[in-house]
Design brief:
The protein is of the alpha/beta class and 275 residues long. The protein contains eight helices and eight strands; from the N terminus they run ααβαβαβαβαβααβββ. The chain is globular.
Amino acid sequence: MDQIAMLDKSKINPLKNDSTERTPIGNFSPTEIAKFDQLAESWWDPNGKYKTALEFNRARVEYFITQICLHYERDFNKVAPLKGLHILDVGCGGGLVCEPLAKAGATVVGIDMSEMSIEVAKRHALKSGLNIEYRHEHAQHTSTSDTHRYDVVINAEVIEHVPNQQTLVKQCSQLCKIDGCVIMATLNRTIKSYLLGIIGAEYIMRYLPIGTHSWRDFVTPVELNSMASIAHLELVTEMGMSYNLFTKQWHTTPNVGVNYVQVYKGLVTNLSFCD
């Protein structure tokens, strides 16, 4: 694990801005949703604001699929290796994770609180000839509306945007079958992630729109694993993601100093949801 300045949230200014205030209708920030609403049309634009995110997503999803295949003892090299698996993508945005999972044979449901992102995802799936169920709803609503639990629950780059991170992790756990697979991806809260993930990516290289992330809401691997443990999830493995400036490609790395992924095994499904 990267030893670069793992910073304690208790030592960060506790004052919250409006974007992180809890709302009475669920564990999400209206300001964050509005921000992604404005950017919704850029999700799939290869020359748009999320160009680098699209490249990052390709490497990340390949790792997701590999880990799912390992979890369910599937052959990654077979056609449609995820056939027969039901996967939920919590905070699916424009469908960047959902589509490659569907192409790999999975039955995919994507949920997001950004209605505009959901509409973009629906249009792109239709254009791509993919049958993906997209819903404009909250994870807590999904838990009460679905009659079954999922083989895989994915929560990618969402936890740093919600006011109650523990609640989100518990919701993902409850939505997963016993012995199922929960995958969470986020950004570590280190000096390195501040320099590369915000100053570099947003202000200098403009890989992401300025204001996409709030560094104080990043989550260390230890913190995420602690939240997952409380939610009765068992850590299987973790891996970092790194960008090579020379090859201009993303790849996996043992270094979790900036972007990282944790893969969990679901232990129980009868957790009570937090308010």
